[in-house]
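Table S2 (text version). Query chain:
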Amino acid sequence: MTEVAFWILTALAGGRQHGYGILRDADELSDGAVKLRVTTLYTSLDRLERDGRIQRAGEETVDGRARRYYELTPAGRTALEVETKRLLARARAAEKRLATPPTAALRPGTAGMSAAVAW
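Corresponding structure-token output:
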């Protein structure tokens, strides 16, 4: 799953939203790390809709502008859950490694040799 898709699905996990709401929510949820462009957003929304991960959830006109709303489908929620578990597993592996004191590394080509032979 792309980072853009992840943040769009994450935004929609909170309920149906229109495009601008998704842009704002993705920015806020990612602490500003994701700045979606409008063209990127709508290209991604089209792809996610085609893949069955989101669906249109109505339209309304506000101040003369049409707003199209989107929501997660069950498949989209499942995809987000799977991706979240995958990311958590990676983060846990990194945390575990960071909590372990570093060990001295062998020089290339010295695996299985005693220290006296390697030098």
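Notes on Table S2: Strands lie at 17-18, 54-62, 65-72. Residues 54 and 73 are 5 Å apart (CA to CA).
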